[in-house]
């Protein structure tokens, strides 16, 4: 059925009821659409998984920062764990186990951050101890100079 057909620039609406198509064409069309959907679903599942590049880079950057902060002097086990987990994450990428690679890269990042935090805490503790010693020696020196005994 054709509606609003004029020779002017007015909109034209064409509507064809589905009953005009033979039922065998309709079922063939449905099978074709269903088959296409199935092929798309299989293709989507079969596509190569995306490696966790951002997580791997973040872990590598954290390890590099920890090494520059001389973490190995204070928190060597944690830094070693971070390196091992980063290597394992890269191996997981090579065998296309991206979930494992992402998990290991994130753990590597946390281990490197922990190593850096422990190093900073140990350095701060050492500075604090040195300041306490200096304060004590200043007190002793002041008492010696004033003649007051502790």
3D structure, described in words:
There is one protein chain. The chain is mainly alpha-helical and 150 residues long. It has a domain at 53-129. The chain is 72% helix and 3% strand. It has 4 helices and 2 strands. Strands 1-2 form a two-stranded antiparallel ribbon. Helix 2 (53-68) packs antiparallel against helix 3 (76-94), helix 2 (53-68) packs parallel to helix 4 and helix 3 (76-94) runs antiparallel to helix 4 (98-146). The relative contact order is 0.09. Mean pLDDT is 80; it is low at 1-8.
List the helices and strands and how they pair.
Layout: E1 2-3, E2 13-14, H1 23-46, H2 53-68, H3 76-94, H4 98-146
Keywords:
4 helices, disordered N terminus, 150 residues, two-stranded antiparallel sheet, mainly alpha
Helix content: over 70%
Total strand count, please? 2
Sheet with most strands: 2 strands, antiparallel
- End-to-end Cα distance, whole Å, is 112 Å
Mean pLDDT: 80
Order of helices and strands: EEHHHH
Oligomer: single chain
Short description:
The protein has a domain of 77 residues.
């Amino acid at each position: 059925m054709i509606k609003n057909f004029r020779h002017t620039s007015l909109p034209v609406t064409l509507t064809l009821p589905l009953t005009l198509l033979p039922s065998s064409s309709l079922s063939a069309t449905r099978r074709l659409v269903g088959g296409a959907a199935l092929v798309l679903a299989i293709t989507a599942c079969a596509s190569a998984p995306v490696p966790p590049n951002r997580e791997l880079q973040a872990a590598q950057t954290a390890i590099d920062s920890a090494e520059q902060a001389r973490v190995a002097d204070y928190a060597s086990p944690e830094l070693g764990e971070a390196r091992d987990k980063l290597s394992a994450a890269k191996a997981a990428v090579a065998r296309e186990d991206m979930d494992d690679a992402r998990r290991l890269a994130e753990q590597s990042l946390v281990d490197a951050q922990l190593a850096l935090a422990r190093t900073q805490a140990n350095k701060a503790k050492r500075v604090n101890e040195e300041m306490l010693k200096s304060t004590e020696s200043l007190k002793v020196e002041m008492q010696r100079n004033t003649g007051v005994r502790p």
